[in-house]
Amino acid sequence: MSSNAVLKTETPSIVACTVSRDVQIFDLLIEDMETALGENWGDLSFNDAISFLQQQEADDLQFLAIAMDHEDEENIELIKEIIGAAKQRSIKVILITEDVSPASLHQLLREGGDEFVPYPLPEDELANAIDRVLTPPEETPVAPELQNKLKATGDHEGVLIAVHGMAGGTGATTLAVNLAWELANVEKDNPPRVCLLDLDLQFGTTSTYLDLPRRETVLELLSDTDAMDSESFMQALLSYEQKLHVLTSPTDMIPLDLVSSEDIARVIEVARTNFDYVVIDMPSTMVEWSQVVLEASHVYFATIELEMRSAQNTLRLKRALQSEDLPFDKLRFVLNRAPGFTDLNGKSRVKRLAESLGIAIEVQIPDGGKQVAQTADHGSPLGENAAKNATRKEIAKLAQSVHAVNQADVAEAHG
């Protein structure tokens, strides 16, 4: 028996490699790799990784665990090359990152990173990430009735309406979903084409409110908007009753900064060119691309309630926007759970709230009671199962007002 044969039988098959500036910096990664793979893994430096991936020894590799911190961002082009070389050999890539900027992480995921895990590693998270990349879940086929059958046109100039909650529970998603549904039904003979975009990428619930599945396709679309066109955008949408067309939030929670201002601008543009109305359910958090939506919106609704959280957050937002010379005056404030017609004390409080904040409260939506939450839990708009509800009636009136203004503008533009 030759020495080579002896060596081959004693050397375990290498199915994974860590790639880093110095793996000793990531000591928890070493422990987790040993727990998950025993001795069936190796370690590479950034400089050695590409040459190794070109050798026969890399044939058995199933994934790379690329570990980096903020100091490695200056070598991001080299890391992107490593990811590209791995992708050419169908090798999965798990990114282990510590203090890496969202912009850099976004670039690496767009280059082909399959998973990212923060460092220090949460317990069992590396093992879970390995399971996900090596046995990716098959996406459940979308039921035919939920598939978007609307064709791309590319010739529309849709009205952009954003809805932003000034605090949790102020009814932003309820308003966004039901306003979009009412706009889609505002005319029986010639209904407008309406698209609902859920840009609350972490906790978006429009899919829950309409009983629609979340899809991996959404993250794929948002991760590479350069390659997006009208056709791919339309394919990513789901349909509710073939009247309202929805881009749900992604299946998994992702950083809000994973998408850039340019990404959101492209999504908005392609949506507007294919629909008459585009309604956006915004995250309550302000992020880099919030400015893009604010400036592009024809109407920007901000939902509040008659309580201190809404008042304090409205003041914070007002100061933030005005300090950056951004159009705070564009916000149209919507008071949810507004006091009833005979509640004079409540109406006085509303007036004082508006005066103290220096805002005009243009829309007041009455409290629809438990029925509002129940219809959301059942996955249907209020107009479907609670048409006489006070909340639904006010949102329907708002939709008719928005549509009337838009129709007047269109008529004026065409002379």
Care to describe what's here?
The chain has 415 residues and is of the alpha/beta class. 43% of the residues lie in helices and 17% in strands. It is built from 17 helices and 13 strands. The protein has helices at 3-10, 27-37, 46-53, 76-88, 102-111, 125-134, 172-184, 206-209, 216-223, 230-236, 261-272, 290-296, 308-323, 344-357, 370-377, 382-385, 390-413, and strands spanning 16-20, 41-45, 63-69, 92-98, 115-118, 159-165, 194-198, 238-240, 244-247, 277-281, 299-304, 331-338, 361-366. Strands 8-9-7-10-6-11-12-13 form an eight-stranded mixed beta sheet, with helices on both faces.
- Strand element count: 13
**What's the main sheet like?**
8 strands, mixed
**Uncertain runs:** 1-10
Order of helices and strands: HEHEHEHEHEHEHEHHHEEHEHEHEHEHHH
Descriptors:
single chain, 415 residues, alpha/beta, eight-stranded mixed β-sheet, five-stranded parallel β-sheet, 17 helices, elongated, disordered N terminus
Fold topology:
Blueprint: H1 3-10, E1 16-20, H2 27-37, E2 41-45, H3 46-53, E3 63-69, H4 76-88, E4 92-98, H5 102-111, E5 115-118, H6 125-134, E6 159-165, H7 172-184, E7 194-198, H8 206-209, H9 216-223, H10 230-236, E8 238-240, E9 244-247, H11 261-272, E10 277-281, H12 290-296, E11 299-304, H13 308-323, E12 331-338, H14 344-357, E13 361-366, H15 370-377, H16 382-385, H17 390-413
Parallel strand pairs: 1-2, 1-3, 3-4, 4-5, 6-10, 6-11, 7-9, 7-10, 11-12, 12-13
Antiparallel strand pairs: 8-9
Helix pairs in contact: 3-4, 4-5, 7-17, 11-12
